[in-house]
Amino acid sequence: MGKIKENQQKKRQQLFETAFDLFTSKGIHETTIQDIAKAAGVAKGTFYLYFKDKYDLIDKLRKKKTAKLFEEAINFSRTVQYDNFTEQLLIIIEYIIDEFSNNQDLLRFIYKNLSLGMGLQNIHIDTDKEQGENTTSSIYEIFEERVKQDGLELKDPRTTLFLVIELVGSTCYNAILFDIPLPIEEFKPSLNEAVRKLLNE
Which helix (H) or strand (E) covers residue 124, if one does? Predict the structure, then answer.
């Protein structure tokens, strides 16, 4: 990677990190582009080299955060014993719930947009722990491959995954932050049952 490209990536990452800190401390609506640029130590004009406006940054940052969360959850699931894809997916969901429970600022920022990162082609999945190999795929591609391996009869795997993730995102937001309809620990059995039904189990 060239020096210029490397510096550009560093500045972009710095803007992401600074914006997230400000959004979670001050609030999205209260944070201006000037606030972000100043805190990141760059000129306001530099911001526009990477993002069209504040809402473009928010959209990209939500995708980045959700994709990273899925990456961590999937790789964690590969360290746990499971018999089929449904069990693996429930492990992934459990991981996401725990992360949101422990980091409610992240949950508030993502809001109910957990599905945003599913189509990104930058999910690094460990395929061989001993050799350190990994693949880069989207959540959709990973899901479809596992559905084929397990022989699940899903008419449209991507739609099913979208429904599952939307359900998890909304449930986490309401149950973790507001105990609606129940605290998340009490609601998890119902959530797991709903996921199994969506997967035709």
Answer: strand 123-128
